[in-house]
Amino acid sequence: MRYRRLGGQEGPPVSAVGLGCMGMSVAYGPADPAEARRALDQAAELGMTFLDTADAYGRGANEEFVGGWLRGRGKRDAVVLATKFGLRHDPATGRVDAVDTSPAYVPVACDASLRRLGVECVDLYYAHRRDPAVPVEETVGAMAELVAAGKVRQLGLSEVSPETLRKAHAVHPISAVQLEYSLFTRDVVEGDMLATCRELGVTVVAYSPLGRGMLAGVLASREELSEADNRLRWPRFSEENIARNLALVRAVRAVVDEIGVPPARAALAWLLAQGEDIVPIPGTKRARYVEENAAAAELILTAEQEARLRAAVPAEAVAGARYPQQALDRLGH
After folding, report:
1. What per-residue confidence (pLDDT) applies to 96?
2. pLDDT of the residue at 218
3. What is the pLDDT of residue 230?
4. pLDDT at residue 92 in the model
5. Residues with Cβ < 8 Å from 162, sequence gap 6 or more?
6. Which residues are catalytic?
7. What pLDDT, on the 0 to 100 scale, is given for residue 303?
8. Domains identified in the chain and CATH numbers
């Protein structure tokens, strides 16, 4: 495993490929705790040290699961643990119905996450989304108090605008911004956002780096998704869009087959090639995919291969928005 620095050259080292843990509890069909634990064990054995969770994933269930695994391993210092706050759920439906980044909520949410994780300190604490009615300076000011109290080591934001990042960074250094970034979703990062991150020394943590599994090349149709899979509600997997997007996956596959590696490995290697300040966190709940994802850190693409992979997925050819409209409305503030 190769390693990168979180938040500039003075930041802590993290594995160049991290592990998104959400799917171990929610979102991508039925959970299999035993297999998910094997996936975490495999990640540890391969040097994949950067683990990502959030209080919103299963309304705390994912934090409890990851925390239980950590306690079982007894090696807290061997991982860089990231979690998030700010999304609140409707008790009746279980769906996210509000964003709360008020200063009063910050310590309440953090203490709850620490209890569920069973740790005294989180390495990286993100605001999962931003309530535009709350000045980000106030939110980050409250988050900075957690750093002073020894409950959090570094601060992060997720899906914010460059302007918001600048305002936040002026209050307390922001080490990472979590953004969707993949061959399928490039406009969120590339351009002003990436330029701002690089100016400020902020790492881009790329979530859904495989296009929510599409770029892994194992999905052949919408019918393969279980009723519990959230992708059935996402526009890029709709009846009218999925065929067009799978055609793009086949175009990627044509390039990847010449490189001679699995599609997921090439897609992650493409992201890693975009800069030393990019850290993808592919999510999986299966040990065999952890091994494949980790191997991407060792794959060095040529400039021609990078360009051909980018050209295989023209930005305007991707069909459908990356989220349903209600979720889109929470982004980019």
Report:
1. 79
2. 86
3. 86
4. 74
5. 192, 193, 195, 196
6. 57
7. 97
8. 3-214+263-299 (3.20.20.100)
Q: Which amino acid is at 130?
A: R
> What single-letter amino acid sits at 171?
V
pLDDT digits (tens, 9 = 90+) for 227-286: 888 899 899 999 999 999 999 999 999 999 999 999 999 999 999 999 999 999 999 989
Low-confidence residues in the chain, pLDDT < 50:
none
Q: Please state the three-class secondary structure of the chain as a single string.
A: CCEEECCCCCCCEEECCCEECHHHCCCECCCCHHHHHHHHHHHHHCCCCEEECCCCCCCCHHHHHHHHHHHHHCCHHHCEEEEEECEEECCCCCCEEEECCCCCHHHHHHHHHHHHHCCCCEEEEEECCCCCCCCHHHHHHHHHHHHHCCCEEEEEEECCCHHHHHHHHHHCCEEEEEEECCCCCCCCCCCHHHHHHHHHCCEEEEECCCCCCHHHCCCCCHHHCCCCEHHHHCHHHCCCCHHHHHHHHHHHHHHHHHHCCCHHHHHHHHHHCCCCCEEECCECCCHHHHHHHHHHHHCCCCHHHHHHHHHHCCHHHCCCCCCCHHHHCCCCC
State how far the Cα of 175 lies from the Cα of 11, in Å rounded to an integer. Answer: 8
Residue 243 buriedness (CB in 10 A; 0-12 / 13-18 / 19+): exposed
- Global pTM reads 0.96
